[in-house]
Design a protein that fits this description.
Length: 849
Amino acid sequence: MAEQGTMFEHCVFSFVQSRDLQQSQIVQLQETVEDHGGKVLELKRDGKIRIDDVTHILSTTSDFPQYPEARNGMINVVKPSWITESLLKNKAAPTRPHTPDPNLIFSNTTISCADIPSGDRDAIVGAVLAMGGSESSSLTKLCTHLCALTMDNPKCILVKERNLKCKIVLPHWFDDCLRLGKRISEEPYLLPDPEILRATKDDVLQIPASEYIQGASSTRPESLPLTTDSPRRLDVFQGKTLMISEDLEMGSRTRKVIEDLIRGGGGSITSSVHNADMFVCHWRDGRDYITAACAGIDVGNLSWLYHLITHNEWTSPMKRLLHYPLPKGGLPGFQGLCITLSNYGGDARTYLENLITATGATFTKSMKENNTHVVTARDSGEKCNAAKEWGIEIINHLWIEESYARCEIQRLTEPRYTHFPPRTNLGEVIGQTPFDLKALKKAYFPRAPTPSPSSLRRPVMHEKDRNLSSSKLSDDESAMSQDEANEAVKRTIVKQVKQIVKGRAKSTTNPKLSTPLANRRISAGKENDTPSSTGSRSAKARALSNLHGMAPDIALYEKEKKRKGPIWGGERAANEVEKQRALDRSSSPATKQEEEEFSAEDTPNAKRQRLSLDKKKPKTVPIEVQLVVTGYSGWVNNVAKEDSDKKKLRELGIHVIQDARKCSHLAAPNLVRTKKFLCALAMGPTIISTDFIEACSSVKKGGPPDIEDYVLKDTANEKKFGLKLKDVVQRAKANKRSLLRPVPIYCTKDIPNGPETYKEIVEANGGHFALYTGKPVIRKINPEEDDAGGEPVYLVSGDKPSERRLWTSFIEMAEAGNMEPRIVTTDWLLDVAMSQQLKWDEKYMVGLT
């Protein structure tokens, strides 16, 4: 425990003022820190923090200019609550739960678990700790959330009796937050009456407002969002130099108003990007943009500039997606996409409309036949239902945001893009995705050119330092450079000597591990002869002379390496030179010769050892058969045999797969109407008996038995189904998975065995499959406009009352679309898939009763 008044004696603080941390609060915190032995450093004249001197930065936000630098310097950035908790515990509290980092969604969260099973409890606690939170086994005043399933636990009763400020939530809340990677509201998950258990996802839910997109819903605001009658001083531009690009196409009057505001706030305007601290443009294109972005200055668009003027508070243009310049021509992969929105409103809808347009996709207000995606805040509503029936992708806004932030289209298979908490409108977490700087650099920043050795003699300088390039160094600087050069020479010589000694030590302890240089030093006469001492001294003398001759260049190189300069100069240029030198050394003729000599001097014993190792390595047999297995009783409830058989088959070049679309062979005990059999049959595979698996498992040496000897023969079932298996396979090969391509097939959701079973069969045969819920999914046409009408449309249905109610509306819909309605049993689809013929008979009709 720390003594009173000395708790923060080793801490040096600095404060970041913001809307949530005003100057009056900073004064109080400063007094508290100093009373407990801490030290507070004032900001520099330009308003920057003295990063090299502080240990803690107190801020309620990570949105301040020096936050990345503080993170790289391992400096603690914490909220003021860290001081409060430290004083309560009378010792320094952990910093992680008090970080303002938005990625740690459970910071400022302390959980305790009540009646949660141990396995689930460990998973929840681990996730909370990983995302910035903390855990307490007992219920304390610091607990913010109590995770429970019911209110019967003593912890829940205690919270209720003492009226503690602790929210009792279902574990579903943690699960949904982790799935999304965002922190959503706890309200629908609060016990004793959680909304997610008493309401459905289709019930009305209010569209929330989001503070994250205020002033960032458009890239080109129509007007300056403040009155110019009573201009105010803008401290945000104090000491800053701005360049406003011509691609903004700003009117002269508006431009003059903005420039007057900037100059009135202590800033200045420049027409050269080399002199600018901030660059405002519309497109991620052009020499000025690349120069500004690569130099690391703040680059934003007009919306970002207006946001700074409105709030008089600095914010990074990378924090909000529409505060950064737009990609000219959109992003790769979005051209041709047609996207609509659902369940978003207000600024959130405007924001997403502009974001979709910025990606290069087409936005439509209403659902159309050519729509490819629906971006929705909830998995409910007319658009979502229609999208499911039409086979249109349904995703939340995280997909469009993260695609834009990472400068490339993201995969739709990512689970968080298709996750919709039942009683949450995801509009409440919109706008929280920042830019991925690494992805932005990779996509838009040119690669650094490889500097030549002569570039060390002429280092790249800042624009402001160019007037010094023609003048000589002062005497003090020259002396300092010489000292640095001497130190560099000493370090290099010591390093070389150590390497030589190390190489000799290795060669004496284990001759087989000798280096190429050691091998070359051994004379042809005596085995223990050493190199000539005279030659060694002369070699060192030459090296030392060369190094002394390079002293001025080394000094200038070391000095330039430490300087923070433009993107191609300073530290980065130095690093590039070091990389190039390493590459040159590795590809030099001397190194290659040494490597060749080393390999040539390999001993016969070593070669024999390598050959023996190569013989021991198992040779992988190339895959010749992709096998799908169905109906094999030998693997039922016998996992050990299944694993053993699959391993043996793989050793024989036979790979057992689950994806029927990739199979070349199908194994079954007889003709069966299983989903896997019918899906694989559409590929036209060679159909064999499962006896082949038994035959392979008994093979000791050699290859697999002849597959032709195990071709499936099932006369009884061929007669039962009225087909010849050989003819069916031939028809499947001729169909090329397009048997049902021209046939629209719908299915009721209450069909026996579930719609997914029949969906896979239809899609394996190239057909269009969708659920039918009673809403029109076929466009009405005028019969006179389509004389050829009468094409059949199928509804696969059972005979349940819930299914029968759909028949009338299906018939009316089909007739309105000038199509012939056919309501059929599942036997029709199974027989069609089994025979690989699109046949029809009235016996398949369910009919109306």
